[in-house]
């Protein structure tokens, strides 16, 4: 356990250091400033589009087709319950202790009354669900601007959010803490991956038809959504009056 | 009898006035519920009939949007370089594109429920944000916010925000790219070409 935590810490340190270097230099106000690695990113985007078309999307479509709605909801709630652990941790790290308290309350209620998280009873009781991760925590701690990165399989991230993601999976019960079986872990990780992809199926067509340049559309949507998450759904207005 | 008639006229008058000055949050709620009610009962929209969804959006939603403002927001600084005629063309092509996007969202409607967040505004406000949330079983609620401005014709939507993503400003970089390559006319052409391609898809779907 000790060894493991040392390795992940050093891994995070490397990624974070890389991020500091990549995001060093004056921040450009121009949108292009967020994407200095555009050439690499576009190549990775193309790779991912290929993978998605031949392998990932078909699996997600089958899953979407064969899984009845109550099962889908149960799967979503199950992973949502696990995510409340991450929400609590990161709310606490960001100093939002009341929110962290709500997350722990949700975790306790849904893991017991909600039968291992299969039902989201806490939401019915009015305990609000949050959406936090370590990338957001880093942003709250001051790393608010970071270069965009596109990974195969992982999809859109920034340098900061890639580091955040590594911390997230290392603090995620699905990846190791609650079970010792590699087979169970891999099944859970795969199921969650497919479930997340399936939830995006209805968005696919919209993006496909709305975008003039799909890569730029996805990138800018990701950056906007992250900004919204960092400010918990109430980002300060960017004032761009046109007169 | 006379008394009743006067009461009736008076009531109608009050109702008309109320409608003209309808609060922005009430407007959003009324339009949303009206559209969802129709989609809930319409099998063909649920089964992906894009043309029908577009007609519905055209009839019920479009009158409450200000596309001139939306196009200006999407284009950004270069908007001032466009002639009034170019601006009008941009607004019109952008409208077609957005209607298409918005209608698509309707055809993937599946038992979602819209929750209206508490709304506050001051008496003289002419620019407000109405916040709603789309709930669906097993998924996180999705934030859906509308920015509205008060014009002579009443409250008009000029931006729609889904999960923090503005459907309008998300185009800014793509539009900027087109303008750098081919000027304002290049951008108009690019959106028009996109719309034409989408129309082609629509016709194909119709034919099968």
Describe the structure.
The complex is a heterodimer of chains A (243) and B (208). Chain A is built from 10 helices and 2 strands. Chain A is mostly helical. In chain A, strand 1 (148-151) and strand 2 form a beta hairpin. In chain A, helix 1 (2-22) runs antiparallel to helix 7, helix 3 packs antiparallel against helix 4 (97-112) and helix 6 (134-140) packs across helix 7 (159-170). The radius of gyration of chain A is 19 Å and the shape is globular. Helix content of chain B is 58%, strand content 16%. Chain B has helices at residues 2-20, 24-41, 43-46, 50-60, 67-75, 84-107, 172-207, and strands spanning 113-116, 127-135, 142-151, 154-162, 165-166. A 5-stranded antiparallel β-sheet of chain B has the order 1-2-3-4-5. In chain B, strand 4 (154-162) and strand 5 form a beta hairpin. Chains A and B meet through helix 3, helix 9 and helix 10 of A and helix 6, strand 5 and helix 7 of B.
Low-confidence stretches of chain B: none
Shape of chain A: globular
Distance between the termini of chain B: 61 Å
End-to-end span of chain A in angstroms?
A: 60 Å
Query: What do the pLDDT scores of chain B average to?
Result: 88
The largest beta-sheet of chain A arranges its strands as: 1-2
- Percent of sequence in beta strands of chain B: 15-25%
> Which range best describes the helical content of chain B: under 10%, 10-25%, 25-40%, 40-55%, 55-70% or over 70%?
55-70%
Q: Number of DSSP helices of chain A?
A: 10
Structural class of chain B: alpha+beta
Q: How large is the share of residues in beta strands of chain A?
A: under 5%
Q: Which structural class is indicated by helix and strand composition of chain A?
A: mainly alpha
Largest interface, counted by CB within 8 Å of the partner chain's CB: A-B, 36 and 40 residues
Summarize the structure in short.
The complex is a heterodimer of chains A (243) and B (208). Chain A contains ten helices and two strands; from the N terminus they run ααααααββαααα.
């Amino acid at each position: 356990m000790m060894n493991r935590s040392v390795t992940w810490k050093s891994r995070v340190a490397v990624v974070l250091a890389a991020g500091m270097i990549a995001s060093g230099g004056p921040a450009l106000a121009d949108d292009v400033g967020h994407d200095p690695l555009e050439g690499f990113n576009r190549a990775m985007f193309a790779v991912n589009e290929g993978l998605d078309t031949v392998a990932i999307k078909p699996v997600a479509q089958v899953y979407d087709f064969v899984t009845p709605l109550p099962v889908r909801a149960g799967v979503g709630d199950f992973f949502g319950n696990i995510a409340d652990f991450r929400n609590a941790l990161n709310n606490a790290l960001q100093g939002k202790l009341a929110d962290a308290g709500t997350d722990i309350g949700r975790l306790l209620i849904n893991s017991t009354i909600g039968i291992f998280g299969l039902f989201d009873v806490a939401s019915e009781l009015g305990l609000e669900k949050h959406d936090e991760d370590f990338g957001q925590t880093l942003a709250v701690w001051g790393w608010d601007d970071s270069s965009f990165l596109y990974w195969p399989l992982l999809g859109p991230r920034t340098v900061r959010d890639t580091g955040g993601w590594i911390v997230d999976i290392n603090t995620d019960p699905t990846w190791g803490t609650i079970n010792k079986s590699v087979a169970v872990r891999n099944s859970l990780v795969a199921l969650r991956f497919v479930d997340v992809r399936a939830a995006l199926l209805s968005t696919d067509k919209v993006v496909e038809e709305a975008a003039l340049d799909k890569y730029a559309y996805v990138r800018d949507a990701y950056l906007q959504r992250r900004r919204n998450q960092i400010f918990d759904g109430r980002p300060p207005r960017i004032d761009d009056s046109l007169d | 009898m006379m008394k009743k008639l006067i009461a009736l006229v008076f009531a109608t008058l009050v109702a008309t006035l109320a409608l003209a000055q309808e609060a922005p949050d009430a407007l959003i709620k009324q339009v949303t519920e009206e559209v969802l009610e129709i989609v809930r009962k319409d099998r063909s929209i649920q089964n992906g009939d894009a043309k029908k969804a577009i007609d519905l959006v055209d009839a019920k939603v479009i009158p409450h949007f200000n596309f001139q403002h939306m196009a200006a927001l999407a284009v950004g600084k270069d908007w001032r370089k466009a002639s009034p005629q170019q601006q009008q063309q941009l607004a019109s092509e952008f409208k077609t594109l957005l209607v298409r996007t918005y209608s698509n969202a309707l055809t993937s409607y599946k038992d979602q429920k819209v929750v209206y967040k508490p709304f506050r505004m001051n008496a003289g406000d002419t620019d407000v944000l109405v916040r709603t949330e789309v709930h669906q079983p097993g998924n996180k609620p999705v934030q859906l916010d509308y920015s509205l401005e008060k014009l002579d014709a009443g409250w008009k939507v000029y931006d729609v925000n889904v999960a923090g993503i503005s459907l309008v400003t998300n185009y800014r970089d793509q539009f900027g790219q087109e303008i750098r390559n081919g000027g304002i006319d290049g951008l108009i052409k690019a959106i028009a070409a996109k719309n034409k391609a989408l129309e082609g898809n629509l016709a194909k779907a119709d034919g099968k």
